[in-house]
């Protein structure tokens, strides 16, 4: 009580700001995959609270690494914990779930034991399940698997910190509604990132007009579930817990090739994914530095006041993207909704070389999110 009075006094004097306890502090998950242009040694140790390495393999009833470069990269990330003892490093799995989840209880138990031992031996702090996406028929078996995995994680953790079990959740209403047993996930998973991006990706047959990758608010003429806020409220309505829910934010844009350079608005006809980006040379995708280079080369910027989405265009090139302003706005929005934080896809798509800012500040998207989350 006296301590509380004392902090109250300091608070009134403006010296002390109450901080959330570790149990409910904000989380900033950063996914990382290896590319030529972003070595694991360049991943910052103190920007994210959790790093998730993507991806390990499910193979032969256990977790395997794709090769020595993965093992080395994971060692490097785990080594960052020397600089930041609070940092957690996890491994994500994406392929191969059916081989475990549609098999017997014995197979699930063996996998759990093997996987836990692989994670511990690598010095990792947990596992991230990124099955894209479980179908309705998989739902009950997946739920059973999660329960078994959690039991083994808890059993193994006697006398030490339990491994974390996290998940990436689908970006569409149908998959969210049919593929996941929300009660089981809330019981057995520590936190989950809703992949609130790729809401529009060029597809010749079904999505052949320009659209936003990850707009915060609904876009005029579209259903609200094709927006970040609409998708997140849908997840809450299904019973996912805000205290375990992270907002997935992209550090990349989606590019299109316009049918007609003079029709460059939202929902303009497109003929294909965009040509290779100007800096990282990616087809259909602009990493954040690609967006900055395109703007430096004279692309026109449009901010949509309704959805808070942004796009650039030049000639027949058209790109919907996020920048330091939009990712910070989303992070603040997530906190205002009582969500636990942000999950970024991905570290290597941020601006490693500092070409987006006048003062050459590096990784400006990650920095903007960290600041907005007050980490
Ligand atoms: C669920 O798992 C059982 C084994 O426990 C398996 O026989 C069944 O085929 C699985 N269901 C689906 C839809 O894969
Ligand atoms: C464009 O997409 C629509 C559906 O949104 C589809 O009906 C139409 O056939 C597509 N156009 C082409 C040329 O494939």
UniProtKB/TrEMBL annotation:
It comes from Patella caerulea (Rayed Mediterranean limpet). SUPFAM superfamilies: (Trans)glycosidases, Chitinase insertion domain. It comes from the Eukaryota. This is GH18 domain-containing protein. One of its GO terms (molecular function) is chitinase activity. It holds the Pfam family Glyco_hydro_18. Keywords: Glycoprotein, Glycosidase, Hydrolase, Signal. Residues 26-375 form the GH18 domain. PROSITE patterns: GH18_1, GH18_2. GO terms for biological process: carbohydrate metabolic process; chitin catabolic process. One of its GO terms (cellular component) is extracellular region. Belongs to the glycosyl hydrolase 18 family. Residues 1-21 form the signal peptide. InterPro entries: Chitinase_II/V-like_cat, Chitinase_insertion_sf, GH, Glyco_hydro18_cat, Glyco_hydro_18_chit_AS, Glycosyl_Hydrlase_18. SMART domains: Glyco_18. The lineage of its organism: Eukaryota, Metazoa, Spiralia, Lophotrochozoa, Mollusca.
């Amino acid at each position: 009580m006296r301590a509380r009075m004392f902090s109250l006094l300091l608070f009134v004097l403006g010296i002390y700001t109450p901080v959330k306890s570790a149990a409910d502090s904000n989380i900033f998950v950063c996914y990382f995959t290896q590319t030529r242009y972003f070595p694991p040694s360049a991943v910052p140790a103190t920007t994210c609270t959790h790093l998730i390495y993507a991806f390990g393999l499910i193979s032969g009833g256990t977790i395997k690494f794709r090769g020595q470069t993965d093992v080395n990269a994971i060692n490097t990330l785990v080594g960052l914990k020397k600089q930041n003892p609070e940092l957690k490093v996890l491994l994500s799995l994406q392929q191969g779930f059916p081989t475990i989840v549609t098999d017997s209880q014995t197979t699930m138990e063996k996998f759990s034991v093997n996987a836990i031992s692989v994670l511990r031996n690598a010095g990792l702090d947990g596992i991230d399940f990124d099955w894209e996406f479980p179908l309705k028929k998989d739902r009950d078996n997946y739920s059973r698997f999660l329960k078994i995995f959690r039991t083994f994680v808890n059993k193994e953790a006697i006398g030490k910190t339990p491994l974390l079990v996290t998940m990436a959740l689908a970006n569409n209403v149908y998959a969210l509604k049919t593929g996941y047993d929300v009660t089981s996930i809330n019981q057995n998973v520590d936190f989950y990132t809703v992949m609130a991006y790729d809401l529009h990706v060029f597809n010749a047959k079904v999505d052949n007009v320009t659209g936003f990758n990850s707009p915060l608010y609904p876009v005029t003429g579209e259903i609200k579930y094709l927006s970040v806020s609409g998708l997140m409220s849908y997840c809450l309505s299904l019973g996912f817990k805000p205290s375990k829910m992270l907002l997935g934010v992209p550090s990349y844009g989606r590019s299109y090739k316009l049918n007609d350079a003079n029709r460059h608005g939202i929902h303009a006809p497109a003929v294909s994914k965009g040509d290779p980006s100007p800096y990282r040379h990616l087809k259909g995708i602009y990493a954040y530095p690609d967006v900055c280079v395109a703007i430096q080369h004279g692309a026109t910027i449009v901010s949509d006041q309704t959805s808070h989405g942004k796009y650039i265009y030049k000639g027949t090139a058209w790109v919907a993207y996020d920048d330091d302003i939009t990712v910070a706005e989303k992070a603040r929005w997530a906190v205002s909704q009582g969500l636990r934080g942000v999950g970024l896809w991905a570290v290597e798509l941020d601006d490693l070389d500092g070409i987006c800012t006048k003062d050459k500040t590096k990784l400006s998207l990650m920095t903007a999110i960290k600041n907005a989350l007050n980490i």
